[in-house]
Predict the structure.
Amino acid sequence: MKKILIIGAVGQIGSELTMTLRNVYGNENVIASTRKTLPSDKVKESGPFEFFDTTNREDLYNVCKKYGVDCIVNMAAILSAVGEQNPMLAWDVNMNGLINVLEVAREMQMKQVLVPSSIAVFGPGTPLDKAPQETVLKPTTMYGVTKVAGELLADYYVRKYNLDVRGLRYPGIISNETLPGGGTTDYAVAIYFEAVKHGKYTCFVKEDTRLPMMYMPDCLKATVDLMQADFSKLKHHSDFNVGAMSFSVAEMADSIRKYMPNFQIEYKPDFRQAIADSWPDSVDDTAARNEWGWKPSFNLDAMTQDMLKVIGEKHKLGLI
């Protein structure tokens, strides 16, 4: 790959993935983009940056043509909680944006498209413990519906047009860089920021809520590893389960108390509880491990220690 376009480069994953890919492929070879949200200075100043709406196919094509893009990483999405408040917006961005990406990539004969999916594809009927790679997919959110449709559409382009499209089902992603962005698993990020800033947190899901989670360094590693995997060795393409750890909110709180003994938490579940309850406790990622060597590095306590250290340093500097 020579030129990579990241769509949605100011989101939780996109902002850090932009910098990671610039370190791997060179600053000028990774074009970051967003619809309207202002990027951080380091994203904007370290390489090319464009403002455009991925639902506008002409604008997408023109940016790809301008830079000679041969790989698109489509991180643009309306997430689960926000998507339930505006389902048609979620459909427009998540589906119409995706079809534009796939069509432009096909027309320009690009080398690769990465289309992330999510554990939101799961729903009633999916085994809660170690959700299989191949299983019932009946999501209860518009976000989940678009992700299932997106997986099927991406695989269609692999079969129909021999386009290299690949993707992974992200679990909840926990980052010390970017604040939550409207997802159901946002509590797993907010709890650390609130612990450092206020010593307490009010959680919008119950204490025994358990979901698959992943620390951002592992998320970035999984994404880059899949991008660099030998396409001919992949039996799956757009729907890889990737796991790292699974824990309840109460276990997160206990982990935080190992380093902040006075941390307090209370629980006030809201509409997001039903969404969380529709997702599995953990996933079976055997396919990812066998087909492209996936292996996570962080467990809960290692992540907690690093999160509190980094956020604490930022708080002292007045950055958060």
Summary: The first strand starts at residue 4 and ends at 7. DSSP finds twelve helices and 14 strands in the chain. The chain has two domains: 4-171+215-241, 174-213+245-280+299-316. The domain at 174-213+245-280+299-316 is CATH 3.90.25 (UDP-galactose 4-epimerase; domain 1).
